[in-house]
Amino acid sequence: MAGRIMPTKMGPSERRHGERKTSVPPNVQFQIDDIDEEWTYSMPFDFVHSRMMNSSVKDWRVYLKKCLQSLAPGGYVEVQEIDLNAKSDDETLREDSNLSRWLKLLSEATVHLDRPYQDIRQIKYIMAEVGFKDVTVDYFKWPTNPWPKDTKHKTLGQWHNANVGSALEALTLAPFTRALGWKAEEVRAFVAQVRKDLNDRRIHAYWPIVSVYGQKPA
């Protein structure tokens, strides 16, 4: 029997004019919900997948406890998250770069908005604390652009650069204007400088990624 899939969106979205309508499998049901409110699903899940929710979750202990409570005994949760702080192993990402400054200011803004970025290294411990067993962590590096020499990470860098580049202004505009008092035109000018660093292949930076999964005791 086919399983039931229930993706949860954090806000409404509308199909844009001219956008092709795609078919949705009969066992998929989309819901718009607030994850910080009480979860009211009518039946438990076998698997909960959480991806890129950092700074959207107010309290990770509460959030992961809800995941645990929503699972059937023996069910799994998987959390995939990005570390806000990009790194470089050869120090080509300088602390005074626009990219580093952007990350620092973004972190500061999310604290003011009461949605601070969670240290992804702590997620596995939080999962264990709330009751998950056999918590396992896999680590990955996503390059900022195609600077790596090997084909796999070069391609990954191309994808990640396109993804971050397309979202750069959207990620920045609200936090900077609402929490830091910047004007919209100031944000856009700064984002243009950040984008230069993002695209600079001389900067061998990457974002650490974790995939953390655990099981609800039977």
TrEMBL record:
Positions with biased composition (Basic and acidic residues): 12-22
InterPro entries from the UniProt entry: SAM-dependent_MTases_sf (IPR029063)
Stretches for region Disordered: 1-24
Transmembrane regions: none
Protein's organism: Fusarium oligoseptatum
UniProt-listed Gene3D superfamilies: Vaccinia Virus protein VP39
Source superkingdom: Eukaryota
Protein name in the entry: Methyltransferase
Pfam families per the UniProt record, alphabetical: Methyltransf_23 (PF13489)
